[in-house]
Amino acid sequence: MKRNVVGAQIGAISFVDEGVEPVLDFLQKEAGVNTLYISALSWARGNAGRGSMGYPDHGPHEPDHLQGGAFFEPDPKYYGATFLKEFRAPDPLYKGFDTLRDVIPAAKARGMETYIYYCETSRPDPKSRWVPGWPHILEVDHLGRRGKIPCYNNPEYQIWWRSVMEDYCNSHDLNGLMWGLERKSAVSAVLDGEAATCFCEHCMEKAHKKNIDGERAKEGYAKLYAYVKACKAGTEMPDGYFANFLRILMRYPEIMQWEKMWYESHTGLAKDVYGTGKWLSPEKSFGLGVWQVTETFSFWLRSMYDYSDFIECADFIKPILYNIPASSRIRGYLEGRNKTVFKDYDSMHGLVEAIYPILGLKGQPEYEKLNDEGFSTQYIQNAVTRIRKGVNDTMPVFAGIPTGVPTGDGIVEACPADITAAVKATFEAGGKGVILSRNYSEANLDNMRACKKAIEELGLDTDACVGAGAGSGKSVY
User: Fold this and answer.
1) Is residue 414 included in any domain, yes or no?
2) Whole domain around residue 354: which residue ranges?
3) Number of domains into which the chain is organized
4) How confident is the prediction along the chain (477 residues), in pLDDT tens digits per residue?
5) Has residue 313 been placed in a domain?
């Protein structure tokens, strides 16, 4: 019998700051956690650093000046095929600490499972500028400039990830890995006011093989980039702002071809990681985490992602369903779109009313209340149910629950009662687990404790033998 998963995302910083045994004691005994998702390799402050918007009721209340990288000691023998060899985090705080060597045995001794969590973020903070060779794998934007994040189609980046997976699977007694899909497509980036990526030699070559005119695509994105600037500058568009957006897409069908190629490359790296892991360790579980922007806010990204695509490349799915922060997050997201593609709406109230049905968010707070009220637990139940149908119930769904997700001054934040309700909603909708997120270093302890309260009230088994995916018999071979 597989146990219900009660997971916690946690960075090395919490073990360094508060000690391995005290942190595991709290997580297991007071929060009911049986599975760790450790950010052992990260350049994302939200997954690996101390609190980014204030501090919770535990740990040091001062900046950690995160530089990021590997919070474990990479074994050189696995990195002979890549020039990316020196990526051990240089942060002085971690000197003498190896999050995998020092945490996994202690967790195993308690019967806790351990996974690596890596989040492919769209906005690196901090930058991995100190890693030798990193500029060679960065994207190239439509203006010909090096971008901010690695290109999926760069063979060196692909080789490096296979090397990391080989190290993970052969060097450490892990139960598996969770890969976070959190990137913007080129259209999404341009609508946010950023340049379109990626047009490096590898992407252009891939496009050529698919009979996509890369130069025409680049020209189309340049037109879209100029359109966004014009929108924000207040340029009048008599035919309508949305009509002008669609006009560019119609005149440059290569944009849509490029978006499709981006999606295939984006999910393709996740499939590469999954296949490599399953070849090395078929008994381990490999899951996918899905960004809340994709899952909830963006009609554009939502239309790209089809959960059925993941049936053969994941053992579990973790959608980010931060229901309380979702309200202020979608407010900010739609306010941005109201300056460009949805500028035809003269009120945010009307835009929110129009977009909710498209995104399946009927019944959630109206615009004027979004900073004061979170989304209801019905949002969680609807999403879990939809995703289960999307994967034909072939794998478990673990909802990401917001025990520590910053929102900002004067904006509603999750309280213990919200956590208890969210956990219950997940299991009542057929979810097989929850993952307390974003990062233990941001979470207030009573929010963590509220998870155990919900588990006990539901009478769920969280102690029986193995975690999700292990021994499921799923294989791509």
Assistant:
1) yes
2) 5-184+266-458
3) 1
4) 367 999 999 999 999 999 999 999 999 999 999 999 999 999 999 999 998 788 999 999 999 999 999 999 999 999 999 999 999 999 999 999 999 999 999 999 999 999 999 999 887 788 888 999 999 999 999 999 998 999 999 999 999 999 999 999 999 999 999 999 999 999 999 999 999 999 999 999 999 999 999 999 999 999 999 999 999 999 999 999 999 999 999 999 999 999 999 999 999 999 999 999 999 999 999 999 999 999 999 999 999 999 999 999 999 999 999 999 999 999 999 999 999 999 999 999 999 999 999 999 999 999 999 999 999 999 999 999 999 999 999 999 999 999 988 888 899 999 999 999 999 999 999 999 999 999 999 999 999 999 999 999 999 988 743 334 443 444 322
5) yes
CATH number, position 72: 3.20.20.80
List strand residue ranges (DSSP E) for 216-364, in order: 285-290, 316-319
Q: Token pair for residue 2?
A: 């597989």
Q: Is 469 a member of any domain?
A: no
Instruction: Examine residue 242 and state whether it is found in any structural domain, yes or no.
Output: no
Tell me the Cα Rg of the chain. Answer: 22
* CA–CA gap between residue 90 and residue 131 (Å, rounded): 10
Residue type, 312: E
